[in-house]
Amino acid sequence: MSLLKTEGILVLVGFPGEIRLPPASLILGSKTICGSVTGGTEDIKEMLEYSAANKVYPNIEVIPITYINDALERLVQRDVKYRFVIDIQNSLH
What we know:
Number of helices: 4
Largest sheet: 2 strands, parallel
Low-confidence stretches: none
Order of helices and strands: EHEHEHEH
Structural class: alpha/beta
């Protein structure tokens, strides 16, 4: 937590066995911990198959690779409504 800047956010992806930290490390500096539980490869494959079969699609913002610095700045400013997806194929032309 000491590596996070003031109002920093630590995002945990997956399911860690245990996390130990002093409560003051969150309060001092207004730091946040959040996370997302993701399954293994089979779970993800099942989810993608279900989504495709039921026409459940994510809301995304497709960006060219040349926009990456602007996208990162928008992340810092918390000006992001959808997940960014970099269009690598068209960015290479």
